[in-house]
Amino acid sequence: MTGPWAAATTLTVVTPAAGLFVSFEGGDGAGKSTQARLLAERLRALGREVVLTREPGGTALGQTLRDAVLHGEHVDARTEALLYATDRAHHVASLVRPALERGAVVVTDRYLDSSVAYQGTGRDLGADEVENLSLWATRGLLPALTVLLDLDPDVGRARLTSAPDRLESEGDDFHRRTRLAFLDRATADPDRWLVLDATRQAEELAAVIGERVEALLAAGASADVDGAPAGDDLATAAGATARDAVADESAVSS
Ligand SMILES: Nc1ncnc2c1ncn2[C@@H]1O[C@H](COP(=O)(O)OP(=O)(O)O)[C@@H](O)[C@H]1O
Ligand SMILES: Cc1cn([C@H]2C[C@H](O)[C@@H](COP(=O)(O)OP(=O)(O)O)O2)c(=O)[nH]c1=O
């Protein structure tokens, strides 16, 4: 990459040694908040400190930014990307990183990959540029595990009960492209991602996720500063298959 963000690619991606950072990603209504909550409950029952949080809006300043970006006046795509990045920078500096440093498990409902999918691909700002913006904002903090709850956007929309926000109001094409962007990122980095079919029962999904996280904790994955935890062949295959299936669906429906 060239240009002003080129320097960001030299950042070292570091998970602080003590804790474990887990993010949930996927479209609206995919079940992220449900699974994040169930995971937190499971780990707390095991005696772990868990910080359950979300983006945008995991801090007081973040709540103000959330209201602005989701319900405020119209903003252009770059302003939108910067608002999410600002929320993320403050979230990581003030809440996520301190919690990881004291050994907590941090479970976040959305993180950097949402920006790459929604602003980078959905808004056409460029995946690399948007990723590097967030890596700069967070000093290179990536989750040890990102759970992608993959769902047809129409099914997700039908699950929602509240009025759509500014992003949810975008059209079918926008949401189809963000879904594919998540799947592409998961396929490109299978060690970090666990791709799950979000039409499965919530309890069933929670069991798979819980087992994976407990395995990471048992293996001390969070202390692996230089490399990602061991891969999951089944999940990798599921991710690739899901992406192919979605591509086929798009081909059929377009
Ligand atoms: N696996 C699932 N199957 C069917 N419905 C689900 C499932 N998980 C969550 N839901 C329901 O779908 C709605 C959206 O779930 P939520 O966890 O808020 O999604 P998100 O945080 O991804 O927007 C809620 O009404 C929730 O009860
Ligand atoms: C974190 C993040 C969220 N978003 C969008 C996705 C969602 O439509 C919206 C609000 O996220 P969220 O509260 O997760 O909505 P929901 O629970 O309905 O899934 O913000 C971005 O566009 N970029 C980002 O970086």
TrEMBL record:
It catalyses: dTMP + ATP = dTDP + ADP. The keyword Signal does not apply. SUPFAM superfamilies: P-loop containing nucleoside triphosphate hydrolases (SSF52540). Pfam families: Thymidylate_kin. Its EC number is 2.7.4.9. The keyword NAD does not apply. It is an enzyme of class 2 (transferase). InterPro entries: P-loop_NTPase, Thymidylate_kin-like_dom, Thymidylate_kin_CS, Thymidylate_kinase. GO terms for cellular component: cytosol. GO terms for biological process: dTDP biosynthetic process; dTTP biosynthetic process; dUDP biosynthetic process. Residues 24-207 form the Thymidylate kinase-like domain. Keywords: ATP-binding, Kinase, Nucleotide biosynthesis, Nucleotide-binding, Transferase. GO terms for molecular function: ATP binding; dTMP kinase activity. ATP binds at G26, G27, D28, G29, A30, G31, K32, S33. Phosphorylation of dTMP to form dTDP in both de novo and salvage pathways of dTTP synthesis. Belongs to the thymidylate kinase family. This is Thymidylate kinase. It comes from Cellulomonas algicola.
